[in-house]
Write a structure and sequence with these properties.
Structural class: alpha/beta
Strand order of the largest sheet: 3-2-4-5
Strand content: 5-15%
Shape: elongated
Radius of gyration: 25 Å
Helix content: 40-55%
């Protein structure tokens, strides 16, 4: 009896599940990602040939070309602790929604009295917000308080992150988790504005201040 020949056909792969998985992953990242708020100030950096990389645990002071002062702190948990301490200092109450929004905000430059209104704004309105910046005169030196309490909050969160890194089996360096202070100044700003901020750091005995510049080629 002759053998029955089974017709051969090329194998096929159903790609539908893979396509579904790809769209699920894209949807997940879109919904779970938090977009960084746009900066309310634009700075034209002076140039240098330094190649130091900005660390993660950062407290940054920005001075625009008009001399206005802005403040930023990188860690979200540190921002919440900082806002709580500043609210206590200036007797201003913030609600839970404002704490949440502030933790993901970018650089800001307004008085403590303006801050609740500023936090409640949409990101586009914040950029257009008319403010003279953070006060740092002798009678109302709010910048000094932001730096002082910001340093405490950054030290606390840095210590927590250091302990977590140790528990995960890493061999972290404690200095890598300490806050780093950065001053970025617009190239067209008058030097005295930068000097006033530097004096605040001196008063607080915080001497590890770094300056942000844009890169240029080193001379041959």
């Amino acid at each position: 009896m002759p053998k029955i020949k089974i017709p051969k056909s090329s194998p096929s792969i159903d790609m539908t599940p893979m396509v579904d998985l790809a769209f699920l992953l894209v949807t997940f990242f879109m919904l779970s990602s938090t977009l960084k708020s746009p900066e309310p100030v634009e700075v034209d950096y002076p140039t240098s040939i330094s190649d130091h990389i900005i660390p993660k645990n950062v407290i940054m002071i920005t001075i625009d070309k008009g001399g206005r002062v802005f403040f930023d702190i990188s860690n979200a948990e540190a921002r919440k602790e900082l806002l709580a301490n500043m609210g206590t200092k200036y007797k201003i109450k913030f609600n839970e929604e404002q704490f949440k929004k502030f933790s993901f905000m970018s650089t800001f430059g307004c008085t403590m009295q303006e801050l609740p209104q500023y936090i409640d704004m949409e990101s586009g309105a914040r950029k257009a917000f008319n403010t003279k910046g953070i006060p740092l005169d002798s009678l109302n030196n709010q910048l000094k308080d932001w730096i002082f309490y910001g340093n405490i909050a950054a030290l606390n969160t840095g210590k927590t992150n250091y302990e977590e890194a140790k528990l995960s089996g890493e061999e972290p360096e404690m200095n890598d988790f300490k806050p780093k202070f950065i001053l970025r100044v617009d190239g067209k700003a008058v030097y005295v504005h930068a000097q006033n901020v530097i004096n605040v750091f001196r008063d607080l005995k915080l001497n590890n201040l770094n300056f942000v510049t844009s890169m240029e080629m080193a001379p041959l």
